[in-house]
Amino acid sequence: MGTVTRITRARFSVGLFVHHRLFDYRGVIVDVDPSFQGTEEWYATVARSRPPKDKPWYHVLVHDAVHTTYFAERNLEPDTSRDPITHPMLGHLFSRFENGRYVKDQRSNLRKRRRTRFPTPTLKRKGTRPQTFNSEKSI
Question: How far, in Å, CA of 83 to CA of 15, rounded?
């Protein structure tokens, strides 16, 4: 018999507005983890309501703040105001506000990589060509 894989479905998606039930602030989701991805120390110190670790957790830009935060799904509800949020990282993560949500432009990982020529060292030998390096590092 094979193994059973539990599939977790996230209630919210990237770009949606949410309201934190306990702390009464709103924000926009920038990333979703299928389960808790933090450290045990962080969970013990910060997650005082002890939300489940096996449910989705969300990375959120907090409205009228400069920080991001990490929320358990059970502490979130839809923010029905649909008013845009204010956060300094907003323009770095989303390209536009459309139909009541923020939208990212999708970029293909298969795009042609740009090649950059870097200056050769001062010990360059006559007649040698500069080396070409890939300007993007693979992760």
Answer: 13
How many Å apart are CA 34 and CA 123, to the nearest integer? 52
Prediction pTM value:
0.69
Q: Could you report the per-residue pLDDT of 41-82, keeping only the tens digit for each?
A: 999 999 888 999 999 999 999 999 999 999 999 999 999 887
Neighbours of 19 (CB within 10 A): 17
pLDDT at 133 over 50: no
Residues contacting 97, CB < 8 A, separation 6+: 84, 103
Angular region, 99: left φ>0, alpha ψ -120 to 50, beta rest: left
Contact by Cβ (8 Å): 120, 131: yes
Q: What residues form DSSP beta bridges with 125?
A: none
CB contact at 8 A, 7 and 36: no
Predicted confidence at residue 123, as pLDDT, reads: 34
Q: 72 vs 104, which has greater pLDDT?
A: 72
CATH numbers and ranges of domains, the chain: 17-103 (2.30.30)
- Per the CB < 8 A criterion, the answer to whether 26 and 19 are in contact is yes
